[in-house]
What does this fold into?
Amino acid sequence: MSALFMASTRGMIAAFSPLASKTAIGNIRRTVTSTTTSTQSSLFPACSSSTSLSQEKSNTRSSSIRFMSTETEIETVTPPPPKKVRTRRILSGVQPTGSLHLGNYLGAIRQWVDFQNKECEPVFNEETNTETLTENFFCVVDLHAITMPHDPKELEESTLGSAALYIAAGIDPSKSKVFIQSHVPAHSELAWLLNCVTPMNWLERMIQFKDKARKQGTESVGVGLFTYPVLMAADIILYQADRVPVGEDQRQHLELARDIVRRFNDMYCKGGPFKKRCKKAGIPSFPTFTEPEAMIVKEGGARVMSLTDGTSKMSKSDQNDYSRINVMDPPKLIRDKIKKCKTDVFEGIEWDNPQRPEATNLLNIYLAVQPERTKQDILEEVQDLNWGQFKPLLADAIVNHLEPIQTKYKEVRENEEYLQSVLNDGADAANQIASKTLNSARVAMGFALRDS
It folds into this structure.
């Protein structure tokens, strides 16, 4: 109705000009009257076609009044300003050496699944008119796996197996990108660029290098182990990740990444020459790298300790396989490992007693594989039990928790085409972002770029 009335209005205004002829005016009047009358008939069914001429004229005047009123009530609506879109990226990864164990799963992979499922939805801030999108990148860090002696035959299978386990544990390729680190060449190149910026004394302070060098002997430790925190920094910085899920033991490496970002931006991303280089390359002249922040994973899953020593972290590098529960261990082996794990001679079972690290560790595992339960609930169940009574309960809880993951893993790992398609899609997405960041780093440092 409004469109029709507006069209009629424009016709009337255009026709009533000083140059219009009486004939034209009469035609327009008849046209408007006819249009208005037919429109009113459809709008008000009580008005029949047998209405008298006087009633028709009255209705025509009445419709004209309504029509003019409709036009004057139209208001101009100003469209809202376009919303701003901000992208927040989360990145993490696990080495594929050996079998992924319960500590890797509870302390890292399951935390990633929680981040993915809770924070993947867009968040809109009305005050700033900004929508924040979250992108998750989870990689198998195979370049880190070669910092220690490794078996080339096992590297490929453990890499693909780790990727399959990510998916089996709940990483959804439709929400998160899964890729292999070495499939994105920018990791290696940026690590070299950052090596040339990082002072040696920063790396000499890294605790993990000191521990592994002491165990292996400095004669057999490669330079890669010394500089791998720089590679880790490159992994993070490439994706401009502003939040990185890490365990407490990795906080020092993340702080190193933050130091490297500040140093690089201070050395190469200031002043007129930097702006000129950026302008020539056609890229923005803001600092090259984003300074990341740690997302320390929650306790309970953050530190799963060895089954043979409650004061040492569960590790893939431990030569004793009974020191850990591997995610793919069959039920019989899990029960055997729990049966033989180290306990103590105290009566009862309790949490957080410094003199009973093994008790705390086993209770932490028992709670972690039953996320629907509370600490108090479990204490009430087990506090009066002895180890012989508790260990079968713990073994059953672990088996029940891992069984669906193991089933899903076999499905994914046997579907080679599906797994490769997920990894290819992930690598493509990662390369698109990483190559852009690497190019900005080259420009900042003054490299001569290829003429594209």
The radius of gyration is 35 Å.
